[in-house]
Design a protein that fits this description.
Shape: globular
InterPro entries: DUF3243, YmfJ/YflH_sf
Oligomer: single chain
Order of helices and strands: HHHHHH
Number of strands: 0
Radius of gyration: 13 Å
Number of helices: 6
Protein name: DUF3243 domain-containing protein
Organism: Sporosarcina highlanderae
Largest sheet: none
C-alpha cells in the first residue's frame, strides 16, 4: 500500500462528528494539522514527505469536504485553481503555517 492509499484510508476512518469538530473552526483545524505534522516529524519524516502528505490531505479535503468557514473556502479555491506544482508549493506553505500554530 503506497502513502496516498494509507493517508486516504486514515482520513476515511475519521467519523463525521470528529471531522465536523476539526473543520468547524480554522484554528482547531490548524492545531489538528500541527499535531499531525509534529507526529510525522517525530517519526523522522522529511519536510518533502510531510509536504507530499499534506498535498494528499488537501486533495482529499477538496474533493470530499465542503468548506465550513471562509479560511477553508479560500484554501479550497486556491487549491482548485492551482496546477500540481502550485498545489505542492501551497502544501509547503501550509506546513510552515501550522508549524507556527
Amino acid at each position: 500500500m503506497d502513502m496516498k492509499d494509507k493517508v486516504q484510508k486514515e482520513l476515511a476512518k475519521v467519523n463525521d462528528e470528529t471531522k465536523d469538530e476539526i473543520l468547524e473552526n480554522f484554528n482547531k483545524f490548524k492545531q489538528y494539522l500541527a499535531e499531525k505534522v509534529e507526529l510525522g516529524e517525530n517519526m523522522g519524516l522529511s519536510e518533502e514527505k510531510l509536504a507530499k502528505t499534506t498535498e494528499i490531505v488537501a486533495g482529499y479535503l477538496a474533493k470530499h469536504e465542503n468548506p465550513r468557514n471562509r479560511e477553508e473556502k479560500i484554501l479550497m479555491e486556491l487549491w482548485n485553481s492551482g496546477t500540481k506544482e502550485e498545489q505542492h508549493t501551497l502544501s509547503h506553505m501550509l506546513l510552515k503555517m501550522v508549524k507556527k500554530a
